[in-house]
Amino acid sequence: MTRPGADRGGPRLHIDWTRCEGRGLCVELLPEVLDSDPWGYPIARPEPGRAPGDPSVPAALSEYLDAAIEACPRVALSRRHGG
Amino acid sequence: MTTTAPLPRSTARPRPNPGRPFTPVSPSGRLLAAAAPGLAEHLRRNGPPPSPSADLPDLVEAAGLTGRGGAAFPTWRKLASVGARPIVIANGAEGEPASGKDAWLLRSAPHLVLDGLGLVAGSVGASRAYAYAPPGPGAARLRAALAERGREPVPVEVVEAVDGFLAGEASAVAARVAGLPARPRDKAVRLSEAGVRGRPTLVHNVETLAHVAQIARYGPGWFRRVGTPDEPGTFLATLSGAVARPGVREAAFGTTLAGLAAMAGGLTGPVAAFLVGGYHGRWVPADAGAGLGLTPGPRPSGLAVGAGVVIALPASSCGLGASAAILRYLAEQSAGACGPCRLGLPALADAFAELAGRGNPRAAVSAARLAGLVAGRGACHNPDGAARLARSALEVFADDVALHQTGRCQARSGRPASRGSAQR
User: If I label B409, which of A9, B96, B234, B285 is the partner at 20 to 30 A Cα–Cα?
Assistant: First the structure.
């Protein structure tokens, strides 16, 4: 388990993988945090010292985090504080 | 499985043993010695069920018990953090094909499990309890045991588990108990907040519950008399592969891999590697790993044994072939709900099939990349476990990765590599 708020700081973007179908809007809105994997699903850009999983989103990008959560047609995204 | 001396009675509580940091194996086992299928013998060996108490989380914290379903999460934290009027589930699904300890426990010590379930359910103020077990002897024995016992602190219903590797995943268990398909769900909302029908839900492995019952009977000091200070107590292990007497054994944490193999009658021949922690575990080279101690979860200097599965891979079997077979199985067992697992695990299994056959350098690179792509990207830990297994295989069988490209294999010393050498 990784500690909340590590590295980039700010809240974490939780992806419900049972809902995500790789529509890609989140990757467009948060390119600093997310990339597309070979199948088109969002993947967190590496954060040094952190295990893979929900990426943390810098506070400066908070507006775009909200936009991504709103835009997801699968309602797969949520803002998550803590572990 | 034979047992000898029963446990000491609660009236003769064993003295603490502070001078010795590690006792390798309790003389007669604990759960093994306490096991009795019928109620009369169970009561003779163990006395009446421990009474529910609000202090149970403190007692379990003092004992240092961790979950025996594989994740090794501190049991007291689950007990202390669950919401009001929860539902409690004893999880005996044991989807791992190489594991047999929960089936053994349900057959041989159902009352110990029910003691623990009743104790936990009563102590956390549960309204309902469920015992989730595979159809057949496990569920039948639980039903028979419940009929013998009469009134429970909290009503218990037996629910039959579905088949499959993921059937025992906690959120899949909660879904099944609620009458839904047994599929893992997203963890944004914890089961302890909202699980079965939206109610706070506690899911404990059946072995964990048996330990809780004995901790309540004999105390945390007794529990800590074996094992190491950081990882106290015993665990049930299922040994298979190149051991003389495969099956379920009970050992203290800190026991070495070699020590555990000795409990199964020793090795039947040269062994290349051990798979420690089951299909979601890690390969460990036999020479470097034999002297390492077994721990519940990951430790810098120990081997995480998870739910206690240890497989000894004979030197005559190809480790890449065995890994390819396991990864194919994990890919087939994917619930298919999460994209990276549904698409990534078959690709990972394909890369390993190539490595296990006439490998090529690209397949090793591809396997490592795919392991990195699937890890941490699912509602459950199936992709993480597959990535862990794949990475350890690439490391431990690195020589074979190179050898296969020359058409040879360590297992067959010079003979052509083959996909058919997988061992379960």
Answer: B96
